[in-house]
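Appendix B. Chain record.
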Amino acid sequence: MVFGYVPGLLFHPREAWQKIADLNDEQIKRLLPYPIIMALLPAAGFYIGTTKVGWTLLGKDVVRITEASAIPLVVLMYFALLGAVIFIGLMVNWMSETYQTASFPIKGVVLMGYACTPIFLAGIFAAYPIWWLDILLGCAAAIYTIYLVYMAVPTLMKVPWDRGFLYASAVFMVALVYVVAVLVGITLIWEYIATPVFTD
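Structure tokens predicted for this chain:
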């Protein structure tokens, strides 16, 4: 049941969100493992792509990083993705009072976890790192994730669509702040803590 909503979110998002919204609180809580498991996909794809397959720049030799240096990066990537879902999900719950709707922390996390489905699935393609393709897929996944957030908030949080648009826009702004903070953190970690070791 946890993964049963994925096809609907990809092809019929309005109906899929309505099905999730119709669940009671206990049933929603049982969906919490979804983002915990799905966040593993991009991390696993990154590990395979950077250590086993490798990538080329301008048609030159294949570049890879050692497994030992990839593991800290993969772990950090996993926690950054899961942290995004949890942090933004908690903000969804925190803002619910402002928009006069009832919520609880796990509900916000579940909302964000399912909304991030395109990003989780696109991350699988990191296993075969073709940079232009990965960038296109990443952008498409991010755009569709934003669309899912705007669809999810009014439906799952049970607010009118006009108020839901403002609510979802506030969630989107929180997500942007989180992304900027993570990018700064990645730069610092890459430079000073978990510098990758390249191999032939």
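Further analysis of this model is presented in Appendix C.
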